[in-house]
Design goal:
4-stranded mixed beta sheet, alpha/beta, 4 strands, 19% strand
Length: 144
């Protein structure tokens, strides 16, 4: 899908099987009766994302993902820049004892779910978000 792109900033990481991931993300979005205008996933380092977190959100801590919703207020089509720290993904996967790729895809879909209206501010929302992430991962051809 031409409207879903993957980039790298301050890291040498390159997504394997990008087309599979594009198709999967597009399918999840379509299943929510939404369409994509442009989704840009930017893989980066901890320091790169920390700088974004400090500059744009006034948060002084490391995170695995920051999702910027760039839609016009009257648009239903998803448009976003989603920054993902490869360093955080590696650390999280290691501490959880799961494969790097699975954690990366969970975080990718986490950002998409935020764009689709899912929140994770409360404990109840976090649990619902995690269930939805797992449901979406079950749709990925590598995790069925």
């Amino acid at each position: 899908m031409d409207s879903i792109h993957f980039f790298s900033e301050d890291t040498t990481y390159a997504l394997e099987q990008a087309q599979v991931t594009q198709d999967w993300v597009a399918s999840v979005i379509s299943n929510h009766d939404q369409q994509v205008e442009a989704l840009n996933f930017i893989f980066c380092s901890d320091y790169y994302l920390l700088d974004i977190n400090r500059t744009y959100l006034n948060h002084d801590y490391y995170t695995d993902i920051i999702t910027f919703d760039n839609r016009e207020s009257d648009s239903d089509n998803l448009e976003s820049d989603i920054f993902i720290s490869i360093d955080r993904i590696q650390d999280n996967a290691s501490s959880l004892g799961i494969p790097f790729d699975r954690e990366l895809h969970r975080v990718i879909i986490h950002g998409v779910l935020h764009l689709l209206g899912w929140n994770d501010k409360t404990q109840e929302q976090k649990e619902a978000m995690r269930e939805k992430e797992e449901a979406c991962l079950s749709l990925h051809p590598n995790y069925d």
